[in-house]
Amino acid sequence: MEEVLLKIEGISKHFGGVYAVNGINLDIGPGKIWGLVGPNGSGKSTLFNTVLGIHQPDEGNIYFNDRCITNLVPHQIYDLGLVYTFQVPRLFQALSVLDNMLVAGRGHKGDKLLFSLFFRKSWQRKEVELAEKAMETLKLLKLDHLALSPAGELSGGQRKLLELGKGLMASPTLLLLDEPAAGVNPNLGRSMFERIEDLCQKGLSFFIIEHRLELLFDFAHWVYVMDKGKIVLEGKPHEVAEDPSFFHVYLGDE
Amino acid sequence: MDPLVYILDFIVLVGIFSIFSLSLNIEFGFAGLANFGKVAFVLIGAYTYTLLSNINVPFYLCLIAGAIASAIIGFFVSLPTLKLREDYLAIVVLAFGEILKIIVKSEGWIAGGVWGTPVYPAISIAGSSTRLDMAINIALVYVCLFLSFLLLQLLTNSPYGRVMRAIREDEVAAEALGKNRTRYRAQVFALGSAIAGLGGGLYAQYLQFIDPYMFAPMLTFTIWIMVLLGGPANNWGALLGTGLVQLFDRGANIAKDYVTLPIDPSNLQYIIYGVLIILVLLYRPQGLLKESQVKTKAVESIFNGRGFAKNRRDQ
Amino acid sequence: MVNWAQVFVNSGITGSLYLIGAVGLTLTYGLSKFPNFAHAEFITLGAFFGYIVAEPLGLGLPPSLVVAFLATGLVGLFCYRVIFQPLSKKGATIIHLMVASIALGLVLRYSIGSIWGWEPLYFKTSWPSFDVGPVRMTGLWIWLVFVAITLSIIMHLILVHTKIGKAIRATNSNPELALASGINIDRVILATWFIGAGLAAVAGIFRAANTQIWPMTGWDIILPIFAVAILGGIGNFYGSIVAAFIIGLAENLGVVALMALGLSTSYRIAIAFIILILTLIIRPEGLSMLFRRS
Lengths: 254, 315, 294
What we know:
heterotrimer; A: about 250 residues; Rossmann fold; 6-stranded mixed β-sheet; 4-stranded antiparallel β-sheet; about 40% helix; globular; C: about 290 residues; mainly alpha; two-stranded antiparallel sheet
C-alpha cells in the first residue's frame, strides 16, 4: 500500500454557478515529482488555492498526512508542512535575501511577542540554526553571495530561485510549485528542475503546475491532466504524451 | 521666562513627543499600520492618568493604567479593520479620535468636560523651585523614554520584528509562510497604543492640566511628521524627527516675535508642515534615516563572515 | 411630542447634503484607490468661493454654486496633477497617498484661515421659511433637495449615456480592461477629480449657508460623508445615493433618541461612526452588491 501524503477527494469549487473545479480525486505520494498540466482556465490554480485554504471547497475533502485540512486557513496549512510558492514571486522587497529566508522558518518560537522579548537565548540558538540552513540553501541555489542584499534588487531569475528557497526553509514534506519555470530562460528552467530532482531524492515531494511540458515531462514521475475542472488523463509522462486525447485537451475539441 | 527653564521645557517635551513618535513608528514604520488617530490613545492615557491621580493613586500605577487602558481600547477599535485594507483602519481610527473628543467634551463629569481639569504632577517636592520640578520631569520622562526605546529596539531586532516587517511588505506572502497577520497587527496596535497612553499620562502630569482641546487631530499629524521626516522603521529616526520638528516649532515661535510676516505665523507654520510632508513624500519617502535592518546575533555572525568561514572549511 | 413628519423631511435634507458631498469622494476613492482626506477642504473651499460670489458681488445662489463648482473643480484637478499623480507614478502606497491628502488638507485649511481668518462668516441672504402642514421648510432646503435630485439625474445620464461616463464606469470596475479597450484612463481620472471637487464645493455652500462659513466647514461633516462612501460601496455612485439617505434618516432618528435619553446632541456624529463600523464588520463592500454594473 503506497503511502499517500496529500489526498484530494471529490473536491469541487464553483464561482457564481460556474464550476472551476469539478469532482477532483487525486493522490500525491512522498518523494516524487507530480505534475499538473492543462490548458489555461482548466482549474489548476483554483485547485491549488483550494488545497491551500485560500478558497473553501464546496464539496469534498482534503487530507494531508491523514489529517483533514479542508477547512484550515493558509497559515495553519503551512505549519503542517504543506508549502506553496507563488508563480510571480512574492518577496519581501525591503528585507534582505537572508531575512526573506529566515521569515520562512517554521515553528520559530521567536515569532511570538513575549517569547521574543524575554527568552532571547532560546530563540537566538534557533536563529543560528535557521541562518545556517538558509545559507546552505542559498548556496545550493547559487544566491549566497546576495544574502545581505535587499530582495528588491534581485533579477527576475534570481527572484524565482529565492521564491523556491523560501519554500524549502520550512522543511516541508510536500511543496506545491506554481509554474516554477515560467518566464525564465531555458537553461535556468532546466537547472531549477535539476535542483528540484536533487531535493526530491532527499525525500521532498513536489506537486508542480507547469506549462513548459518539455521540462516537466523530463523530470516528473506522474502527471495529472486537467481540463474544464476535471482530471481527464493521468499516468507516467511518456504514457500521457503518447495518449491521443492529450492533444485534444490542449487544442480543444471542435 | 527664565531661559534655562525654557530649555528644560524643550527637553521635556522632546522626550514626551519622542515616546509618541516611537509608538507611531512601531505601528506605521515597522508594521505598516496607518494610525491616523494616534491622538485618541494619547487622550486615553492622559485622562486615565488624571482620573486615577485625582483619587490619589500612586503615579506609576496611573501611568501603567493609562498604558493598559489605551492598549485595550486600541485593540478593540482596530479589530474590525485588521483583515481589511490599510485605509479602512486609518478612517476608523481617525473617526474614533473625533468621537472620543466629543464624548470628553460633552460628559462634564469626566474630568471637567470643556473646562478641563488640573492634574497633579507625578513627583512633587514641597517648596521646590521650577527648575527642580523640571529636572524631576526630565528624569521621569527620559527613564520612560529609555525603557520604551529599549523595548522597541529589542522587539524590532528579533524574529518577531522580522515577521512584522514581512507582513508590512506583503501580507499574502507572509500568510502563505504561516504567519497570522491579524494576530501580529492586533498585537502591534495594542503595543503602540500602550506606549502612546504612557506618553499621554506623562504629558498630562507635566502640563498639570488637560482639556479636550489639547487632543486635536493636529497632534496626530505632528507625530506623523516626526516619524516621516526622521525615517519610518528606524527608532533613532523617530527620535531625530521629533527633535527637528520641535526645534522648528520653537524656532517659529521665537521668530514670531522678531519677524513680521504678511501671513499670521501660526497659520504659516501649519502650511509649511503640510508642504514639507508632501515634499518628503515626493522626494525622500524613506525619511532622513533609512530603515534599520533586523540585527540579531545570527544575522550579524553571517555578516561578519562566520557563515562563510564554515563553508570555506568544507572545501 | 415628536414631529415625525419634520424628522422625515429633515432626513431627506440631510441625506441630500451628504449625497452631494459624498459622490465626489466615493468616485475618486474608487478610482485612485485611496481616501482623499482633503475632500473636506474641497467642501470648505466651495463655501468660501461661494461666499466671495454671493457677498461682495451680491449675486445669488445659482451663480455661487456654479462658480464654486468650477473653481474648486480646478483646484481639485490641480491637486491631483501636482501631488497625487506624481506620487502614484513614484509607486507611493495607499498610506503615502492618504498622508499626502491630509497634508494637502492642512495646507488648504490654513491658507483659507490666513486669508479669511478663523472667525465664522455668514451668508447674508435670508431664506424665507414657511410651513407646509406640520413641517417647516426654508427656501434654502428646497434648493438643496432640488440640486441633489438634479445632480443625481445629471450624473446618471453622464454615467450611462456619455462616452466619458461609460469610461468612468469601465475604469472603475476593471482598469486593465478599460486600458486595453483604448480608454484614456488619464482623462477619466482628471474628469473624476474635477467633478468630485466641484460637487464637494456645492455641498460646502449648502452646509455653510445652513450653519456658518469657517475653515472647518468641511471637517464638520466629513465623517458622515465617509460613512456614506463606505456604506454605499466605494466607487459606487448609486450605492451612495441610497447610503446618503439611510445615514440622513439614521442621524435624524438618532437625534430624537438622544434627546429622549437626555444625551447631548453633539453625539449626532457618533451615529455615522457606528454605521461605519457596523458596515466594516458585517459587510465591508457596503451596498455595492445591490448595484453591480459593468
